[in-house]
Amino acid sequence: MTVEETPAGGLRIGALVPNSDLAYHPLIAQRYPMLASAILAGASAQLRNMASTGGNLLQRTRCYYFYDVATPCNKREPGSGCSAITGLNRMHAVLGTSETCIATHPSDMCVALAALDATVHVTGPTGARAIAFADFHRLPGNTPQRDTNLEPNEIVTAVELPAQSFTTNYTYLKIRDRLSYAFALVSVAAALELEEDTVKEARLALGGVAHKPWRAPSAEMALRGQAADQSTFARAADLVLRDAKGFEHNAFKIDLARRAVVRALMQAAAGTPQSQSNKKIR
Ligand SMILES: Cc1cc2nc3c(=O)[nH]c(=O)nc-3n(C[C@H](O)[C@H](O)[C@H](O)COP(=O)(O)OP(=O)(O)OC[C@H]3O[C@@H](n4cnc5c(N)ncnc54)[C@H](O)[C@@H]3O)c2cc1C
Ligand code: SF4
Questions:
Q1: Could you identify the atom of ligand 2 that is nearest to the CA of residue 73?
Q2: Which residue among 35, 59, 64, 157 has the greatest number of ligand 1 atoms within 8 angstroms of its CB, and so is best to mutate?
Q3: Contacts of 199 by beta carbon, 8 Å cutoff, 6+ apart
Q4: What is the pLDDT of residue 278?
Q5: Are 271 and 168 in contact (CB under 8 A)?
Q6: pLDDT tens-place string over residues 68-94
Q7: 8 Å CB contact between 161 and 30
Q8: Which of the chain's ends, N or C, has fewer CB atoms near its CB within 10 Å?
Q9: What is the mean pLDDT of each run of 10 residues along the chain (282 residues)?
Q10: Best substitution site from 13, 52, 108, 122 to test ligand 1's pocket, by max atoms within 8 Å of Cβ?
């Protein structure tokens, strides 16, 4: 339940640290404000007070059919079919989907952790190991019943943040049906390191669009060395959504995500983060 500094200049967050305590921890609030923003954009104050770091990583999809045991769902019952592909799929994924599942991962915190290049520490019967955040959650493929690469009997012990924390130019932008207590239709964690008006380093991850927090390495690469302006950001957004595929009710997410990426990068470049709250509610 502790947050500790690492010798490498980063932080080690114990798996049992509650979401509220983490968001308001002075080392997180000051050094990783994008993570604090993402956590505070999620759930409600009461839920955040109880939810843990490990639990938020392991939370399952909010696909309605996954919870409705009267309907087929490959994630709940492998081989039974996917009710969402031809059903109510407004909240579902547009990137990295498969013919077996189009569910999204619901976490906000994980989107920021993906952008920050966190590492997940786990332990189990065969010992401890570290998993890069990008490899922790899985795409559905043919095994949508598996959300993560955690092996049976392994548990998460901690999440480690590297030293680079993007304290000046960052944003967590969450677009949802109402301003509080709602899951993301699309969210964007954007962090920039600028040299004058040029992008030196860029991080971009999206929530609400895929079975896992969607890190966008090709867009990050396209941003590096370019002018930090709207046309650069629009090109990066096009790259992120290049392979997106919409379904009957969620095709709007593709354009929404494209515009959210541009807006998040503009906000990050201007140093005007959104979704940040300094008010502690317990
Ligand atoms: C109504 C509602 C709205 C929400 N809205 C949002 C939102 O907008 N954004 C958002 O990010 N989240 C949201 N959440 C999720 C919430 O913030 C919690 O993260 C989530 O409910 C998990 O709760 P928990 O931490 O108590 O985990 P638990 O319920 O205790 O655990 C969840 C799963 O993780 C497993 N687990 C827990 N810890 C570990 C560990 N250390 N190692 C391995 N497995 C572990 C448990 O066995 C369980 O299977 C919402 C939840 C609810 C109920
Ligand atoms: S999208 Fe995934 S979770 Fe939802 S019904 Fe299809 S298989 Fe189940």
A1: 8
A2: 59
A3: 192, 193, 223, 224, 225, 226, 227, 228, 232
A4: 44
A5: yes
A6: 999 999 999 999 999 999 999 999 999
A7: no
A8: C
A9: 97 98 97 97 96 98 98 98 98 98 98 98 97 98 98 97 96 94 96 96 98 98 98 98 98 98 97 62 42
A10: 52
The response to whether residue 155 sits with its C-beta less than 6 Å from ligand 1 reads yes
Q: Are 213 and 113 contacting, i.e. CB atoms less than 8 angstroms apart?
A: yes
Q: Is 280 exposed, middle or buried (0-12, 13-18, 19+ CB in 10 A)?
A: exposed
Atom of ligand 2 nearest to the CA of 72: 5
Q: What is the full DSSP assignment across 221-270?
A: HHHTTSBSSHHHHHHHHHHHHTT----TTTTHHHHHHHHHHHHHHHHHHH
pLDDT, residue 275, reads 59
